[in-house]
Structures are given as C-alpha cells and as structure tokens.
Specification:
CATH architecture: 3-Layer(aba) Sandwich
Largest sheet: 5 strands, mixed
Strand order of the largest sheet: 1-2-3-4-5
Number of strands: 5
Shape: globular
CATH topology: Trna Endonuclease, Chain: A, domain 1
CATH class: Alpha Beta
Strand content: 35-45%
Helix content: 25-40%
Number of helices: 2
Length: about 120
C-alpha cells in the first residue's frame, strides 16, 4: 500500500478514536454505495454524524481546504443515500470534518470541526 494510503488510514483511525472517546458509537467506516462514500458514520443520543477525514503529512498544508462546496454536497447526498438504504428516519444529523496534519513518527495535529456545515437543501432533507 502506498504511504499516502497508510497516512490516510491512520488519520481516519485518529478520528475514530476521537469520536469513541467522546462516547460516539461507530456505525460504519468507509461506507460506499456506487460513487457515494462516507469516511465515518457515528451515532450518539439520537444524533447521526457523517464525518469526512482529511489527512496531510505536511504540517504547513491545511487539509480543511480540501472540503469545498462540492465535497459538502457530496457528503449530504451520501448521507441521504445511507439513511434511505438503512431505512433511518433520524432528524438530528450532523456533518463533521476532521483535519489531521503530520505523521505518527514526526508528530501531528488533530482538529475536529463538529457540525461543520449545514447541508444544502437541494441535496438533503
């Protein structure tokens, strides 16, 4: 596996660890349906979180810049598809973004942006 794939999987594990420490139950990791994809789906107290994880090994690159309007719309569409597939009628839905910079060997920074955006009505709801 390429190093960037290893770093990405490590970043996702950091996000999972953060969520589980906060009491979230991980429902899915790397859920896919056709071209739709969600990194992490977690649930706690009637709230469902759809989380995107962006990891960069360089400390001076902000992974959050990779989450633009198009990515947000994709996340919202994926969330709607997941809930339809699972027959879920959960009204408390949240979209989180995790930014991981660095490496396990050289040190890292983890940022969790909870409730990072409201989904565009066109795609969700």
């Amino acid at each position: 596996m390429a190093r960037h794939n290893d770093i990405g999987k490590w970043g996702e594990q950091m996000a999972v660890d953060c969520l589980t420490t906060e009491g979230w139950i991980i429902r899915e990791r790397n859920w896919r349906l056709g071209h739709l994809e969600v990194d992490i789906i977690a649930q706690k107290d009637g709230t469902l979180v759809f989380a995107e994880v962006k990891t960069r090994s360089e400390l001076d690159i902000d992974p959050l810049e990779a989450v633009d309007r198009r990515k947000m719309a994709h996340m919202a569409t994926s969330a709607a598809a997941y809930m339809a597939q699972k027959g879920l009628d959960i009204r408390n839905v949240r979209f989180d973004i995790f930014s991981v910079r660095g490496t396990p060997e050289d040190g890292y920074m983890l940022e969790h942006v909870a409730d990072a955006f409201d989904p565009p009505r066109k795609y969700y709801g």
